[in-house]
């Protein structure tokens, strides 16, 4: 495989990755390729799919498990703070910042 080219396995019904800068559609490419800093800590690795990446069949998109289920992934975090803190750690809700080419 040429340098810089990686194979990631995603759900067949996952949406295609939007161009960088457009709204995140939950395609999962970024978190399947390399965890964010919080994901690295949760996954205990720096590359490969994040253990907290979760497919939502109902919404047909990937979700961050740490954000969707903080009690499961970060049980020591006070419940009232969890979503706010996690959102800051993973920069959720911003436009797609994954400068990757999906093919
Ligand atoms: S940030 Fe981009 S690559 Fe990551 S899930 Fe959202 S749309 Fe996909
Ligand atoms: S955003 Fe969530 S699922 Fe994605 S790498 Fe970070 S912790 Fe993992």
Strand order, largest beta sheet: 1-2
Q: Given the C-alpha coordinates, what overall shape results?
A: globular
What are the segments in which pLDDT stays under 50 over at least 5 consecutive residues?
Answer: none
Listing every helix as H and every strand as E from the N terminus to the C terminus, the arrangement reads: HHEEHHH
Cα-atom radius of gyration? 14 Å
Separation of the first and last Cα atoms: 14 Å
Mean pLDDT: 90
Sheet having the most strands: 2 strands, antiparallel
Strand content: 5-15%
The number of helical runs is: 5
Structural class by sheet pairing and helices: alpha+beta
List the topology elements.
Elements: H1 29-33, H2 37-43, E1 53-56, E2 61-64, H3 65-68, H4 70-73, H5 82-90
The structure holds iron/sulfur cluster (SF4) (2 copies).
One iron/sulfur cluster is lined by residues 31, 35-36, 38-39, 42, 50, 52-53, 64-66, 90.
Characterize this entry briefly.
Helix content is 28%, strand content 8%.
Describe the structure.
There is one protein chain. A two-stranded antiparallel ribbon has the order 1-2. The protein has helices at 29-33, 37-43, 65-68, 70-73, 82-90; strands spanning 53-56, 61-64. With 103 residues, the chain is an alpha+beta fold. The protein has a domain at 29-90. Helices cover 28% and strands 8% of the residues. A hairpin with a 4-residue loop joins strand 1 and strand 2 (61-64). Bound molecules: iron/sulfur cluster (2 copies). One iron/sulfur cluster binds at residues 31, 35-36, 38-39, 42, 50, 52-53, 64-66, 90.
């Amino acid at each position: 495989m040429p340098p810089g080219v990686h194979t990631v396995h995603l759900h067949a019904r996952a949406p295609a990755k939007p161009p960088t800068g457009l709204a995140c559609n939950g395609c999962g490419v970024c978190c399947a390729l390399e965890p964010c800093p919080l994901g690295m800590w949760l996954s205990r690795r720096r590359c490969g799919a994040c253990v907290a990446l979760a497919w939502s069949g109902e919404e047909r998109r990937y979700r961050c498990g740490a954000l969707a289920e903080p009690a499961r992934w970060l049980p020591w975090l006070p419940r009232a703070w969890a979503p706010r803190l996690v959102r800051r750690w993973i920069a959720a809700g911003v436009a797609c910042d994954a400068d990757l080419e999906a093919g």
